[in-house]
Structures are given as C-alpha cells and as structure tokens.
Amino acid sequence: MNGTGLKTPIVVVLAAFALVLAACAGDDEPQTTGSPSPSATGPVSPSPAAELPLHIDESDFWIVPATGGEALRIAGSPYGFTAEWSADGGRLAYVRKPISEESELRVISPSGEGLAGPVMLKGDVSDLGWSPEGGLMAVVLGYFPQVLSLVDPATGQVTELARGTPPQEELWIVGWRDEARLVAVKSGVLLEFDTGAGTQRQVSEVALRRPWPGGPVLSGDGSRLAAATPQSACGADAGRLMLIDLDTGAVEDIASAACSINDIQWSPDGGRIAFAVLDVAPPGSPAANAIGISVVDLQTRSVVRVTRGLDGFIRWLPDGQRLAFTRFPCWGCDAGGGKFMIADANGGGERLLVENRETALSPDGLSFASAGDGVILMDVDGGVPRTLVPGEAGWSYFVQEYSADGAHISYVRLPAQGTRRYEMNADGTDLVRHAPSPQGGTLSPDGSRMATLESLGRPEKQNVLILSDADGANRVVTEIVNGVWVDWAPDGSRLLVEAGSSLYVVNADGTGLRKLDYNASAAYTGAWSPDGTMFAVGSGGLNVLDIESGHWRSIYSGAEGRPSWTADSELIAFIGLLGNGRRDVYIIGADGRNLRQLTDDTALESELAIAPDAHAVAFMRPGRDKDSIAMIVDVEDLELRTIYEQASPSGQGGKAMAWSPDSRRLAFFGFGEGRGVFVVSDDGTGRYQLLAADAEPQSVIWISRDRLRITTFLGGL
Asked: CA-to-CA distance for 174 and 152, rounded, in angstroms?
C-alpha cells in the first residue's frame, strides 16, 4: 500500500523566470567607423571545442546527503524540472522540462547512477506519481488537452489511460491504492484505473476540484479519499470536507467551513484530518473567523481550530501531535517562502521556525531543510542551523523534497533574478557570466552603469530616474519623475529618458539634464546613431533628432518601427509605409538624401538591421502560421536570401538582431528547429545555434568581430 497517497511533485518552471520585455533598453554598441567597403562572405561554423547550443541561464538539479557531504549535480535545464522520489527512497524520477515538444524522463539512484530512461514523452509533464512498489509511474502530459499515461520505466513503454477534452478539461493524479489501481480525476469526475486488467470505472457521482495547495488525498490504507467540494464563494457552509469510500462510492460529509477548503492532510494514524481554509474574507465577518487550519476527529466528528492565519502547505509531524505549515502575509501576494511554523494539533503552541525560505520537512519530523541563498538544515525543536550547501553569488536555491528514507535531499539551483549579462565568443568558447544587476534596471552598453525607474513612496515621486553602478551602488537620484523608458547612448556617457510626455537627455552621472523639443511617445521607437550625436525615430515618419542642439528634422513622411544605422552614422535603414498599407525596406542618408527602396512586394516587412558597411539589410517578413521569416537583402543587386523560416516576430524592436562589426555575420533570435540565438553568414550559409533561449534576449551586441554580449532580464534565457 502507498501509506501516504501520492506526494504532489514540485514543479519548477523557468518560464516564470520568463523574460520581461525591456523596450527601455538601449544596448547598442558603437561599431567601427570609416568608409563602407564590401565584406568578404563565406560560411562560418562553431568551434568543436564548444558544446552548442550554450545554456547560459539554465537551472541545475542536485542531490545532497541529508547528513552532509558532496552535492551531486544531476542535470541542467533552462526550463525546470518535475521530480519525485520512490516510496523506498532508493530511486528518483525526474523530468527535464521540454526544449522541444518532448519531455525526457529518467530514473536514477541517489548516487546518480542511471537506472532507467530516457523515456521520451510527448509534451510537458505536469503531474508524476510512483506506484507503491515502484514498478510503474503515472504521468499527466500536456496542457489542453491533457493526457493521463502509464509509464513502465524498465521498458520505456507508455500507455495512454485517459485524455481530456479541449479546450480546458483538466486531469490530475490522486494516488495509487496499490501496485495496480490508480485513482485520478478527469474534469471533476473521480475515476479508478485497474492497470493490470486495463479497465476503468467511475467511483462516485460527486464533483471534485483540485484545491491549492493540497488534496484530494488517499488514506494510508488506500480505502478512502478525503476531498473538498468545488470552489464556491464564502458563505454559510461554503466549504465541505467529505470522505469517499473508494469501493462503494459512498460519500459522507465530515466537516464544513464558511469558505472553501484549500488543503487536506491525513494524520499518520489515519484517525484525524487537518484542513485549511485559505481565502479572502472581510475582517470580522463569519468567513474571516473560518480562516486558518482545523483538525477533525473522524470518530467523534469534533473539530478543533488550530490556527487563525492564512495558512497552508500542511504537514503532520510523525508523532501525530504537531503540524508544520506555511503562513502567508496576504492572499495572492509575492511573499517569498512565507513563515514556516509548527503548532500543536489540538491548538496553541505556535512557533516560527524560519521565514522567507522554501522548506522541506524530514520524514522523521525532527528537522527540515530550507533554501534561499544556499541550503541549510535546522532542527524542529531548535538548535544552531547547519549549512548543507553553501550559496553561490548569482544563484538562488529551492528545496524539492527529502527521499522517503530521509537519507537524501533533492534541490534546484536557479539563476538569481535581475538584469544579467553574458559574453562569449561567436564559436561558443570563453563564456563569461557577469554578476546579476538588481532587478528592474537597464544596463549601459558596457555594463558598468544602470538606470532604474523607481517609485520612492510619495505621489510626487513616482518612477524617479535613478542612476547607479551596475551592482546598484553609488545611487544618484535625479530630478526626473514619471519616467516611462530610458535608452543609453552607444558609449554609455548619457541617455535619453521619456518622462511626463517630455524627452530629456542626461549624463550617466546624473548631471547635464536637458529637456528636448520632441514628441517623447514617438521617440520610444528610436535608435541612437553609433557616434552618439543623433537619434532616429521611425514612428509616423522618419525623423532625426540632433542631441546637441535639440532640433529635429523629418527626412521621410511614412515610417514604422525602429530604424538601424550604418557604422559611420551616414545611412539609415527603415521600414517605409506606402498609402496602400504596404511596408517595405528603405535606406536613406542621415541628411535625407539618396533614398533607395530595397524590397517591393506585398509582404509586410518589419524589424530590420543594416550591416555596418551598408552592403546588406536583414529584416523579418511574415511567414506561414504567423511566424516570421528572417531575410537578407543585398543593397547593390537587391538579391533576397532566406536565412531562417521561424524567426522571432519579437517585441524587442530589432535589438535581438545584430551584425558583427565586419558585416560578415548576423546574430538573431529564432524558434523553429530550436529556440534561441543563431549565427549565420551574410550569404545565408553556415547557420548554427549559439544559445538555447525560451524567450528573446533584451539585447544582442557584437563587442568585437568574434565576440558577443547578451543581456537578459529577470532570470534570463
């Protein structure tokens, strides 16, 4: 029997470390100036010394002995993991989140020895559960529709058990009654699957929901299920706690609450059930008086109120006399790990164990592991914390769970949040990770300074421009308030700021603040000239702003998107608008002379970058299935070359498309045969993937002929 039912796997998703669009960034690097000259063309290729694509911001999955010792890195992934220990603690199943359309399931020993796999599964794995003896695994694949499948890890055989109906029919695993019988819920209906006989049956007519953070839950002997009624608004008996007999389907109400019940846990002896009411209710109302954890005695049906806070993630200590739980300061707020606490199961005795750290309770209930800046161990009854895994700068840590025998702890190491910079050679060698800058800032092109729009707590001090070093030190609070975006000059000496519908220029140290006579909202789509003297804007028309004088002139009447400059600041490439709604690629002199149209078709071109020597322009055009095709047009003979058929429709305004200073290579973001940053020769040959990335970088810059700088935001690629 599975004495505890299915343990809910911890899913770490880095897409939630998803990149935030940072249109305020202006990380253009000054290119080599001089007279344009034809560049040599030819294929490029990565170095055999580098294993490509690079995963520069991936999370790491680790195992460490609970008594201390060397931690073992199991795998890395830019997208996170789902994992669960077997009931005997001797095996760990983990799934790397898919880079492609498939997930990779592996089974290992605590020493890292591969015991089974890889088993390739179609789609993402959202639920995972071992059978009691470890012969089978149940998995839920995909999103909508979801698919419940059975996996034999020894043979790799995958058998579909049930499939949800689009668009939003949900499936989830409740647990195993024994080695053959699996209990699951499909669209609120409780089902039992006999995996040996290949049959299924509906257990009960009652509608079920999957409350957060835990439940429904099987009893230790697998005969009963504790569950809550579907979500309803707070009111008289809005929450109902039920027992369902899995053999007969009989349903019995055992407790009620004024708000919905959100967490359910059986006591170790099976005689009591702890449940949490975790909801929003007006202070002083009957519903508010229900908030907290309660325990019901299954023999007497008496209910004891244990806590009165926004409490959840209940765990019984093995002695059955105390509960561990997490207290949240507010409903739905970002409060880190909350407060990890214990209380007597009969009420009272509340005690704080640790604050704002993710935690895992040991199976014997005597200690717990917590993570944040490293992994530490603490005794439940006090004592000096012991460092199990020292923290490393630039990383945060997340404890997954103890093995069932308490001998090992699995944890995930995640890239710390903030603006992050990486430098690497174009062949993938010599990767340098710079320390992350505080969250929300926009780095100067060389990464030494940072601009942040920060509210200082008073109505008249909203979105104040603050300039500082990249690590947040030496802050200078400027006079600019109500800031909207910032854009650094290529040499990092000054920056443009939109604030209160006005456009300003200010030096990097906060001095020299000047207001410019230009429509700030339109300047959002602009680009600095490489020499730092002009700013071209392609909104409505193509306008060029002289930074020193503050004067601007219109050089083309219809334009859209972010323009692109040649290295000598003489030519501008832009998307021109015709009266019939067409968009084509043009180039023009910065003085408004020598206009040339480079494309002439019905496609709607967008997001371009002109080669520093002006011999070619790279741009996007719509392709099939709403993807964009990356193209290069030769400026002299107007020859078009397709370099990638599923490139990013983007949102960074072309900042993730960059030419090398010698104009021989182009770096761009694509998501067809692999999501990430690609490098290709200017003749369209020799394409290879340099970086794996789930979302587009904030900027891509060539800092020399053979070296790039990638800037990401909030956890990165």
From this structure: 19
